[in-house]
Backbone:
């Protein structure tokens, strides 16, 4: 699947591109069918919400589940990433955020690339993420929010007073908040605004590693599960990972994309 020049222009200008209904309902059904079993697993790859058993993130399910492996190689994700980044890509991180009804917690405003630069030694922000909706996303169940154009100046250093959280603590809801102070965020948001893409399950957001984003807690009775596939240019592979390798993947082999019907032709 090739992005049009208008779509590429929009990605470049905004730092994200929303594609409603990119995956069809039978493809999403195949992915969702595996969710209860995957979310029921315990182990270091299962991160929970603060003070509850609800799963916050399930890291690297593509390494132990065949349908998620196929999604990680899906041409509708891999080809736009190659096109945007201008080269071969490999998964730097692959995860499911469950954002469960009533239990799904906040994700503070952040840039992914700042973490990947500091914690994993990723040289350049030549990395994008595809977020695939496994549920319908509405204004009620904690949609992702983006500050359009916040990627243009690249990596933004954390503001003074932000303490580094060792290991993968910053992926948990106990992480101490945004690396940016209120004044920095307010100035950016007043200038550029906020966009929260919403749409049916199967919709997908491609976003730049430097686009500032976050989400509010899910106070609704509706889950908001999303798969996040972060694709890095092969030459931009990480140099100094300090985290477990399921969080900063270290197989830099270029992804081979599968056929377009790989999720349903089993
Ligand atoms: C993330 O930024 O990694 C997750 C955001 C979300 O799930 O809303
Ligand atoms: Mn993020």
Residues:
């Amino acid at each position: 699947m090739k992005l049009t020049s208008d779509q590429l222009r929009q990605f470049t200008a905004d730092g994200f591109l929303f594609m409603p209904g990119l995956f069809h309902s039978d493809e999403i059904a195949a992915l969702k069918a595996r969710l209860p079993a995957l979310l029921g697993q315990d182990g270091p790859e299962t991160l929970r919400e603060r003070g509850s058993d609800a799963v916050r993130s399930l890291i690297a399910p593509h390494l132990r589940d065949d349908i998620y492996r196929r999604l990680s190689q899906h041409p509708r994700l891999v080809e736009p990433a190659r096109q945007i980044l201008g080269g071969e890509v490999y998964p730097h991180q692959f995860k499911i955020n469950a954002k469960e009804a009533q239990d799904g917690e906040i994700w503070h405003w952040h840039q992914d690339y700042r973490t990947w630069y500091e914690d994993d030694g990723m040289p350049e922000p030549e990395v994008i993420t595809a977020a695939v909706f496994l549920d319908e996303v509405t204004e009620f169940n904690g949609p992702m929010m983006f500050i359009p154009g916040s990627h243009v100046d690249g990596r933004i250093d954390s503001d003074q007073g932000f303490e580094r959280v060792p290991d993968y603590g910053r992926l948990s809801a106990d992480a101490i908040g945004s690396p940016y102070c209120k004044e920095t965020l307010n100035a950016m948001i007043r200038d550029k605004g906020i966009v929260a893409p919403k749409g049916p399950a199967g919709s997908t957001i491609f976003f730049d590693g430097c686009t500032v984003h976050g989400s509010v807690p899910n106070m609704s009775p509706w889950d908001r599960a999303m798969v996040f596939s972060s694709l890095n240019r092969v030459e931009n592979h990480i140099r100094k990972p300090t985290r477990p390798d399921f969080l900063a993947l270290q197989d830099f082999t270029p992804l081979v994309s599968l056929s377009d019907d790989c999720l349903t032709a089993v």
